[in-house]
Design goal:
With about 200 residues, this protein is α/β, with parallel strands linked by helices. It is about 45% helix and about 10% strand.
């Protein structure tokens, strides 16, 4: 992928692997990371999963060389791996074999997988709509969220609580909003999201 949106004098040549599927963790970090990647790769389908599904082999049939795995354990059959968890980082031998087979590895010591994806995609796609959401995702995923913020149970805390593999339809609704450029304010004001947040507050 190479963005056509920059003038020639400042064009940033960013090439992403050719993928048709994003497999992401079914939490707020995985959701935001998938939405960011979809900004650059709009034709990809997204599957939300849980780490245990990757480790157990339940996703072996959907993970191939045109799959990017985000915020989940490494799988050697994927073509692109994006993550930030030290426990998921492939060892040197595994990483070298993956790269030698043509894979791309974007592991970085960032507070969230969404931040890793943001750093990759920002040069080619406007992500300004995520400016207020990203710090929250970083904080909640890295355990850095302040106690008073958590206890205040604001809309984003409640949103994080509404996600999971059993909420696939809702997750895809939020994904479409974020990939489509919705700001945090527009997200929480969306009728379906607002209804879920209201239920989560009860």
């Amino acid at each position: 992928f190479m963005s056509p949106h920059h003038p020639a004098c400042s064009m940033v040549a960013v090439h992403f692997p050719e993928v048709h599927r994003i497999v992401a963790d079914a939490d707020l970090d995985g959701l935001c990371a998938a939405a960011i990647l979809q900004r650059a790769l709009p034709d990809t389908e997204v599957i939300f999963a849980h780490p245990a599904l990757v480790r157990s082999g339940h996703l072996d049939d959907v993970i191939d060389r045109k799959t990017v795995i985000v915020d989940l354990p490494f799988h050697p059959s994927c073509g692109w791996y994006v993550d930030h968890h030290l426990t998921n980082r492939p060892d040197e031998a595994t990483a070298n074999a993956f790269l030698a087979a043509g894979g791309r590895l974007d592991w970085a010591a960032e507070p969230s997988a969404a931040r890793v994806a943001h750093n990759l995609v920002a040069p080619v796609s406007d992500l300004a709509h995520l400016a207020t959401l990203m710090p929250f995702v970083d904080a909640i995923d890295s355990g850095g969220i302040e106690r008073d913020v958590f206890l205040a149970d604001g809309p984003l805390v409640r949103l994080a609580r509404c996600l999971g593999t059993s909420q696939t339809e809702f997750m895809h609704h939020v994904l479409r909003l974020l990939a489509g450029g919705a700001t945090e304010a527009e997200l929480v004001a969306d009728s379906e999201v607002a209804k879920r947040l209201s239920s989560a507050a009860e």
